[in-house]
Amino acid sequence: MPKNAIVSQKNAEYYRRSGVAKHDRGNYLGAIADLNRAIELDPNFARAYSNRGNTKDELGDSSGAIADYNRAIELNPKYDGAYLNRGITKYNLGDYQGSIADYNKLLKINPNNSDAYNARGVSRNKLGDYSGAIADFDRAVKINPNNSLALDNANGVRAALRRNQEQNTLDHINRVQNAQTCCK
User: How many whole angstroms separate alpha carbon 106 and alpha carbon 116?
Assistant: First the structure.
């Protein structure tokens, strides 16, 4: 690799890290500027595209975010972070099936990604696939016992199902009682 290319990649990584730091501090416009510079220095820098997508998403530019995640995946189809980020953005747009498809792709690349199982569980829950959601949350906790978000999500779905079952039982009892009252 030519010396100029190595220097350019190091500079691109510097700007990427600077952009991520600015993003984390809420300086989204500064983050975009640094991430643009990183991409300018290394147009094949998948992580920089994904990081810029995160920042665009924070700014409400979901389509720009998805375009950046798509570019990151195009550059590195095995970059699981881009699938996770794109799935989250799709979820936030109400595209639950699309988010699940991204999490499935991620899990083919990295089957031990606890966050992907949790995120897929959240999407499945939104679609009413409660058993699938619970299975994903449980898998996330099995992979990472410290994933308290997945544990909370699993417990929340289980509690909601119990409440629903209890309500259905009460509704049934009321229907039976009403039927008995009307027929006396």
Answer: 7
Confidence of residue 150 (pLDDT cuts 50, 70, 90): confident
With beta carbons less than 8 A apart as the criterion, state whether 57 and 86 touch: no
Domains with residue ranges and CATH for the chain:
3-182 (1.25.40.10)
Q: Show contacts of 37-43: CB within 8 Å, 24+ apart.
A: 37/12, 38/12, 38/13, 38/14, 39/12, 41/8, 41/9, 41/11, 41/12, 41/15, 42/8, 42/9, 42/12
In the Cβ-directed half-sphere of 23, how many Cα atoms lie within 13 Å?
Answer: 22
Read off the pLDDT of residues 102-112 as tens digits, 9 standing for 90 and up.
999 999 999 99
Task: Please say whether the dihedral angle defined by the alpha carbons of residues 49, 51, 57 and 58, taken in this order, is positive or negative.
Answer: negative
CB 99 within 8 A of CB 68: no
Q: Per-residue pLDDT tens for 30-48? A: 999 999 999 999 999 999 9
Residue 77 makes CB contacts below 8 A (sequence gap 6+) with none
What is the arithmetic mean of pLDDT over 51-72? 98
Q: Is the pTM of this model over 0.85?
A: no
